[in-house]
Structure prediction request, 323 residues.
Amino acid sequence: MSHACASVFRNLQNQSDEVTFILLGFSEYPELQVPLFLLFLAIYTVTVLGNLGMVMIIRINPKLHTPMYYFLSHLSFLDFCYSTVVTPKLLENLVVGDRTISFTGCIMQFSLACISVVTEAFMLSVMAYDRFVAVCNPLLYTAVMSQKLCSLLVGASYSWGIACSLTFTCFLLQLSFRRNNIIHNFVCEYVAVVSVCCSDPYIIQKILLVSATFNEISSLVIILTSYIFIFITVMRMPSTGGRHKAFSTCASHLTAITIFHGTILFLYCVPNSKSSWLMVRVASVFYTVVIPMLNPLIYSLRNKEVKETVKTLINTKLFCQEK
Prediction:
């Protein structure tokens, strides 16, 4: 183990000063550089304000100190981190002629993005389990979803995300690269980086495929199982009002899940060929830039407590300015 780690760090040291990557992004569309910059800057601004605002709102409102909002605050934090890892470099490449990124910078971007994505996938699963307990066992909800269990579930999600990221990064560091490498994307995504290596990536690609498939299937199994039981419980409710209330509490989460996992599955299905590079980039934009912006909007627009807290903050600020 120590020999493997030493080999990895030695390889990192050897390549960090020599190897660079060129992120082509949308460079073949020079007329779209400024419009895309303005669009992505607006999206990133909304993402930062929306996600950090969501975290702040949940912290300052005692009514929102519940398991559901505890998980939501971590989801918002992950979306903020993910967007901040990817979008600033994308914005830079749209206005600067030099689209290079250092070997260390590329590896760091991949590693941090991987932590955010894997952790978010399981955080959404944890939120599905939370909704299952709330709808199917409402009388036991407070006892089951204790502060200790919530902290354990969140900690496990982060720990697994970090473990996956370290594993992928270690394998990535064992590959050899040319001095200058062209990546047909705007982000150091695993498949794109591996495709330009000089080493045989067969084993690493298989490990990635198995790990990614395990993460996707296991998180989806938890989500689908939870919502099957939720659907059965809701359909057994005698009152229409009860059904509507139960479905409305799950609607925001279902929307977020559909967008997140739908985009992942789409990227899985797109073949890695030159003809599909544009499609992959568009899907990657949606996945890395747009989704982190959508989540706070989805939860705030459909959530009465969040909207009331925002109105209270705005009214309080206006009152203070008038005084």
User: Anything to note?
Assistant: The chain is about 75% helix and 5% strand. The first strand starts at residue 20 and ends at 23.
